[in-house]
Amino acid sequence: MNDDNFDELLAQGVRDYNAPGAIPREEIWERIQAVRAARRAATPLPPSVKPRMRRAPVWLGTAVAATVMLSVGVAIGRRVERSHAPVVASVQPVVPKTEATSASAPQAPVVSTTPDRDSIVTAIQHETQHTARRARELASAGPAPSPSRAADDNRVLAYQLVVMQHLVGSEAMITAFRSSARRGSVDTQIASWSRDLLNTTRLLETSPAAQDPTMRRLLEDLDLVISQIAQYTTRGQVNTDDLELIEQSIDKRGVMQKLRTLPGRNAPVGT
Amino acid sequence: MSRVWFRTEAVTDTSRLHDRQLITRCLAGDTLAERALYDAHVERVYRLMHRMAGDADLAADFTQETFIRAFERLEQYRGDSSLGTWLHTIAVSVALNGMRKVKRLRGRTEAIDSVPEIAIQPLGLTGDLRARLYAAVDALSEKLRPVFVMHDVEGYTHDEIATTLGIPVGTSKARLFDARAKLRLALAAFAGDHIA
């Protein structure tokens, strides 16, 4: 093979190398806008207006609301976790339709997800979308036009609430994902759910919520894990190597442990 | 080789004038101008990101980050090169950093032998050989791969590549030569039967 032949074949061969499909033009633009808005909102607050938890009595109403919402989130998450056990138990062997099929191949189990589980997942997804909307609203609103300590405290608290809701939703999604993975299936519902959560995670990574180093690390860990899950579930095919990588990411970074030991997550809910 | 993106100097001059107007409006906070700037360049940036990343999600992420950085640093754009080239400089940097991060996270790269066979059969290349070729391109170093992808896959000129990567034109040519040599070596044993 001479140089010319090789170059010609190379030119033909690489034409489709990593060939792009349709450009998600609008989706990318929306994400750019959201991140930029969040970054604008994330202008550092002066130390004098950083959140001080001793002022809690002033925000008692909001705090109570936050606790209630978190409790609901935790309860929903735990219900999802519990609801998976009966699903596994309900695995039914396929009833052979003909003798030929029964003789030719081993019967694969059919997993029937219960309507109860679906409705729970839908409910949490709904909650996730609500949290994402709230995060976008906060990001779009930006800093108060005439900054005051009260306004800044309000904004920080609002972000904290959104972050806590987001973390609860993330825990529920990861739990649901692991559960479906243990069953050897890919839950397509989780694909869109995880993408929603990924967008919110990235929004929050550039928000004032990420000013706290611990929270920032947790959000970065979540970014990695959720993006892996989103890619995996979007592909829709079981791949044990990829699953192992996701599990490694979750375990090595202690994501579930961090999520479950967050301050304020110890309320005895539904236990 | 497709040269869809090749631009003449005259077109470049017009584009620069257009870019200047857009930038001025963007810096004045005109969101319509920002969108126009995005629309004018997103396709080319996304294509390159996809060629480099090989994954639609990563390509979207890299494209997003490119434009975010560009809007944040727009006032630093001096007009030494075209806006498109400036954007590509950011994009390539974002992609290389992003790919490094992805590789670290995955903790592994696919061995050439594990690359699945590609079903489509291009002229003169079997699926096996094509898969080998793609794997060999994937395995090119960080210095060689962008030059090869930009020149031989996306049809950029050496001038464009040199400006984008901040290297002399001669270096761009040398890197392309090296990249092709490595591909030839990687495919030599396998290609004998297919492209004798």
Describe it:
The complex is a heterodimer of chains A (271) and B (196). With 271 residues, chain A is mainly α. Chain A has helices spanning 3-13, 25-41, 60-89, 99-104, 115-141, 149-182, 188-205, 213-235, 240-252, 255-260, and strands spanning 92-93, 109-110. Chain A has 10 helices and 2 strands; from the N terminus they run αααβαβαααααα. A two-stranded antiparallel sheet of chain A has the order 1-2. The two termini of chain B are 21 Å apart. In chain B, α5 (127-138) packs antiparallel against α8 (169-191) and α6 packs across α8 (169-191). Chain B is mostly helical and 196 residues long. Chain B has helices at residues 9-27, 31-53, 56-72, 83-106, 127-138, 144-153, 158-165, 169-191. Classes of the chains: A mainly alpha (271), B mainly alpha (196).
Concise summary:
Chain A has 271 residues and is an all-alpha fold. Chain A is built from ten helices and two strands; from the N terminus they run αααβαβαααααα.
Quickly list its features.
heterodimer, A: mainly alpha, two-stranded antiparallel sheet, 10 helices, 68% helix, disordered C terminus, B: 196 residues, mainly alpha, 8 helices
How many beta-strand segments of chain A? 2
Main pleated sheet of chain A:
2 strands, antiparallel
Helix proportion range of chain B:
55-70%
For the residues shown, what is the average pLDDT of chain B? Answer: 81
Radius of gyration of chain A: 23 Å
SSE order of chain A? HHHEHEHHHHHH
What portion of residues of chain A is helical? 55-70%
Strand % of chain A is under 5%
Structural class by helix and strand composition of chain B: mainly alpha
Multimeric state of these chains?
Answer: heterodimer
List the helices and strands and how they pair.
The complex is a heterodimer of chains A (about 270) and B (about 200).
Chain A: H1 3-13, H2 25-41, H3 60-89, E1 92-93, H4 99-104, E2 109-110, H5 115-141, H6 149-182, H7 188-205, H8 213-235, H9 240-252, H10 255-260
Antiparallel strand pairs in A: 1-2
Helix pairs in contact in A: 2-5, 2-7, 3-5, 3-6, 5-6, 5-7, 6-7, 7-8, 8-9
Chain B: H1 9-27, H2 31-53, H3 56-72, H4 83-106, H5 127-138, H6 144-153, H7 158-165, H8 169-191
Helix pairs in contact in B: 1-2, 2-3, 2-4, 3-4, 4-7, 5-8, 6-8, 7-8
